User: Which sequence fits this backbone?
């Protein structure tokens, strides 16, 4: 990891919104008043899935005159306002810093995608895939540093990517939230500070997902909903349906809940890209010496021809990434209460996400430079140099060869989870909870990819009018004529698969006496990840024109770029399949396969209490956790099976303190030691390269790695100035005391690899490189004690407008702002903010949500002479409205990405440049539907 900057600054953004809102609040609203009463029964929090045996904020009875305006009249609040209120109740009562999102009703989360809901929480930013949220970063950390649980156990979820970077399925620890339908869930908790009773693994935090249970809402409930979804780029309508049945029997002693959700989604991601910018000098070559016309002055660089130092697009192209996606989700829960003190729950969840993708990219070959011929050269005719003298922002060429990329990818991700848990109140003071669960995610993808080669032709690009979308010309050449293509190179014909299996069993024993509680528990986890790969035949098809067809997508690019994009002839995958040219027989690439098994055994003790300090109350949560981790990494090297085992232990103390100045105003402080285990790619040992003449090893994972470790410090102040109102500020500092880095290390080769080396046909005793006798030099990932730091601030302002006037009680604003200080950390946006304005009467409601995040780092170095690859910041506007026509019928309307935000990736060249790599969009999406419940 990199060393992080230690400066901490407040930036412009939503903080301005927060300050403005604070300045508008009436003085009376800020005055100290008597404590508030607990929420009435109609507003009670959903049955809490998380442990509630902890001290909560004190509550006492108050006169009606002292209460916030809408609470004093015992108004029943429903919908979005109700879910906000309940979430704030949970936040205030929690012993650690926790944020919650609650369903507005059964099968009705606030957003269509789980990650889209989570991004409304301060400290959270998401990355999107084809216009839909996929991964999250929490407090500036990459997805691998956030642990995700479902119904109490850690779970895996993997799928593959849509855009040009998504060549493989997700084999990391990061969680893919787009696997699940949001209708299956009723609550999300984000644990930002640690407790001993929270399992380890997330330095950034833990996200807890909960599906519905029948005891959450006793009685009989049935919900059916349906929507039609229209996208402005695809111009197609897709269905989205969901249903929930929940019923309790025998005086609410038995309950059953069943739910299902199904959706289809057609995605067209269209635009322009360069596939990186580079210079001939970086690649060790030069432009052909054709004396081109040059406009502008190249910056001197020491090369014989300064043009060779200038950055130009490698593979300028028009992009089409199409995806026909289907998502099916099923869940069920059975709850039994044989006696009042025992609750037994069995739950199951199934999800299947299928993607069928056709991608077409019209690449023009400028990757290598030199004389025309062999499909990799060109003849420069004219160049225009950028004002800074570092880029060729326009170029005209003859003898350019097209390498048009055509891909068909089909993938399926199937998730299954089965959990049984027991809640036994042994006595009024003693309780025991037990959970046993298993979860499996199986993701696979098959890919067939061709490069269509054209005859040499004229080509020009020009970025002078736009840094993102160049003007292009082919002269008299017609890219739509199949006769202009000579052959198709099969670049990939392969299968990839990832299987992730988790097993968990854990138990918790809690003793309560008044405000005091003592807890102790254990947990055992077994996590298996297995990767496999197979390859098929990859012939060159020549001639190819009879296997081609016209560009199949109408109005290409018109929903993203003014004037649309030029079309071109493409491979007809149906004709290829019928021809038998590509065999469907695959050979396992055993050398690329790998398996990692982690077993963790842990235990904890935790103490909770509440102390009166005059008119104030102090809540204390303290404890420690110990966990032992065993790693078993396996692969096949040179035909020999290799297995490497390693284990390590960690003590993880934590303290959370809450000082309730009044029942509305509190301060928090927390300390914890946290950990995140190394990435799976760093642990797997497949596919190394041994250099016997140089005694070197590269590409070999390191199963002996120990985890990242951090000392975490948090401070916060929260003011619940009205029912549903909150002003808060929190600062955090994470001191990474153990990290990972890539290093050159000379050491003995572990004995587990000797047999594979001896069996390698490239090995010879003549090299005098016997691993049993001489050390090798490794380029590998190692632990480092060099500390890094991440620090930041989170501001929240949730303002119900009832504090201004009773006539405005249905209006409000929920906003937050986050600043994170960490230099060059992957996935980190220094500034992010969210603002949601809402009107909600319980009968009619509308809300508008604006979300923003700054630029963030993708990788460094970025390759081809670029210091960094980055993604540009984005601001997205979403709308949602409903009308409860009757008590049973409701109509709804939603808009996603109303402002038609595009996605932009760029490279930084020498570190000072801003070179567009990809500029694409997926358009606006409008959903309209109805909901019926009885």
Assistant:
């Amino acid at each position: 990891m990199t060393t992080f900057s230690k400066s901490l600054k407040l930036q412009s953004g939503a903080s301005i919104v927060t300050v403005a809102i604070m300045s508008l609040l009436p003085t009376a609203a800020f005055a100290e008043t008597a404590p508030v009463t607990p929420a009435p029964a109609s507003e009670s929090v959903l049955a809490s899935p998380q442990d509630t045996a902890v001290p909560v904020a004190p509550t006492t009875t108050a006169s009606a005159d002292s209460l916030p305006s809408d609470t004093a009249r015992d108004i029943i609040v429903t919908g979005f306002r109700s879910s906000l209120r309940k979430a704030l109740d949970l936040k205030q009562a929690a012993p650690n810093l926790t944020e919650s999102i609650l369903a507005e009703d059964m099968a009705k989360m606030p957003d269509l995608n789980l990650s889209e809901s989570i991004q409304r929480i301060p400290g959270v930013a998401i990355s999107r895939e084809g216009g839909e949220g996929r991964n999250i970063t929490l407090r500036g950390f990459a997805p691998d540093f956030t642990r995700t649980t479902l119904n109490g156990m850690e779970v895996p979820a993997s799928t593959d990517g849509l855009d040009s970077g998504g060549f493989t399925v997700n084999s990391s620890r990061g969680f893919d939230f787009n696997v699940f339908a949001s209708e299956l869930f009723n609550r999300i908790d984000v644990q930002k500070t640690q407790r001993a009773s929270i399992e380890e693994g997330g330095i950034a935090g833990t996200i807890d997902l909960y599906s519905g249970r029948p005891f959450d809402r006793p009685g009989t409930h049935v919900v059916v909903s349906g929507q039609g979804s229209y996208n402005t780029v695809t111009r197609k309508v897709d269905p989205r349906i969901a249903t929930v049945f929940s019923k309790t029997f025998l005086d609410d002693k038995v309950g059953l809940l069943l739910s299902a959700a199904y959706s289809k989604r057609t995605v067209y991601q269209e635009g322009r890209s360069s596939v990186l910018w580079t210079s001939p000098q970086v690649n060790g070559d030069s432009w052909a010496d054709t004396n081109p016309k040059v406009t502008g002055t190249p910056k001197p660089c020491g090369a014989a021809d300064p043009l060779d130092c200038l950055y130009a697009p490698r593979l300028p192209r028009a992009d089409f990434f199409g995806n026909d996606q289907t998502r099916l989700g099923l869940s069920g829960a059975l709850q039994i209460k044989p006696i009042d003190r025992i609750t037994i729950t069995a739950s199951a969840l199934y999800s299947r996400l299928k993607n069928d993708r056709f991608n077409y990219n019209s690449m023009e070959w400028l990757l290598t430079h030199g004389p025309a011929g062999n499909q990799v050269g060109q003849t420069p005719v004219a160049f225009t140099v950028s004002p800074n003298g570092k880029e060729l922002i326009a170029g005209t060429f003859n003898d350019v060869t097209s390498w048009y990329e055509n891909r068909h990818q089909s993938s399926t991700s199937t998730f299954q989870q089965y959990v049984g848990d027991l809640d036994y109140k042994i006595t009024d003071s003693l309780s025991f909870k037990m959970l046993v669960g298993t979860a499996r995610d199986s993701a696979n993808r098959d890919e067939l990819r061709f490069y269509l080669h054209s005859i040499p032709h004229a080509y020009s690009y020009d970025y002078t009018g736009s840094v993102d979308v160049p003007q292009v010309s082919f002269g008299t050449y017609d890219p739509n004529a199949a006769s202009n293509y000579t052959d198709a190179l099969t670049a990939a014909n392969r299968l990839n698969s990832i299987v992730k299996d988790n097993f968990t069993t854990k138990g918790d024993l809690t003793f309560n006496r008044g405000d005091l509680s003592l807890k102790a528990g254990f947990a055992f986890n077994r996590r298996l990840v297995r990767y496999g790969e197979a390859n098929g035949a990859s012939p060159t098809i020549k001639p190819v024109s009879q296997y081609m067809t016209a560009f199949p997508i109408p109005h290409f690019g018109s929903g993203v770029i003014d004037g649309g994009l030029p079309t071109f002839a493409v491979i007809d995958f149906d004709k290829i399949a019928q021809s038998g040219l590509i065999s469907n027989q695959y050979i396992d690439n055993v050398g690329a396969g790998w398996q990692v098994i982690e077993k963790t055994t842990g235990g904890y003790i935790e103490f909770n209490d509440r102390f009166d300090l005059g008119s104030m109350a102090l809540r204390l949560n303290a404890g420690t956790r110990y966990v032992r981790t065993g790693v078993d990494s396996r692969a096949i090297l040179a035909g020999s099976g290799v297995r490497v085992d390693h284990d390590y232990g960690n003590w993880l103390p934590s303290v959370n303190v809450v000082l309730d100045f009044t029942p509305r105003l509190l301060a928090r402080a927390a300390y914890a030691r946290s950990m995140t285990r190394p990435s799976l790619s760093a642990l797997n040992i497949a596919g190394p390269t041994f250099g016997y003449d140089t005694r070197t090893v590269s590409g070999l994972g390191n199963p002996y790695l120990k985890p990242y470790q951090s000392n975490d410090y948090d401070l916060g102040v929260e003011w619940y100035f009205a029912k549903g109102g909150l002003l808060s500020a929190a600062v955090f500092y994470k001191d990474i005391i153990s990290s990972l880095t890539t290093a050159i290390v000379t050491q003995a080769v572990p004995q587990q690899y000797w047999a594979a080396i001896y069996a390698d046909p490239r090995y010879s005793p003549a090299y005098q490189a016997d691993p049993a006798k001489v050390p090798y030099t490794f380029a590998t990932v190692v632990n480092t004690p060099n500390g890094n730091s991440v620090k930041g601030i989170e501001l929240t302002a949730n303002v119900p407008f009832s504090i201004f006037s009773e006539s405005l009680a249905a209006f409000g604003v929920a906003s937050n702002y986050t600043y994170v200080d960490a230099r060059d950390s992957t996935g980190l946006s220094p500034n992010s903010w969210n603002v949601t304005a809402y009107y909600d009467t319980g009968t009619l409601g509308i809300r508008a949500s604006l979300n923003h995040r700054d630029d963030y780092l993708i990788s460094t170095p970025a390759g081809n002479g670029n210091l960094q690859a980055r993604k540009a910041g984005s601001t997205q506007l979403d709308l949602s409205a409903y009308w409860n026509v009757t008590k049973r019928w409701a109509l709804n309307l939603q808009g996603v990405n109303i402002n038609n935000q595009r996605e932009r990736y760029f490279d930084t060249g020498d570190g000072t440049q801003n070179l567009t790599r990809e500029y694409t969009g997926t358009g606006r999406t409008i959903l309209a539907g109805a909901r019926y419940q009885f």
Residues 14-217+244-275+333-363+419-451+512-533+589-933 form a domain with the Maltoporin; Chain A fold (CATH 2.40.170). The two ends are 54 Å apart (CA to CA). Residues 1-48, 50-75 have pLDDT under 50 and may be disordered.
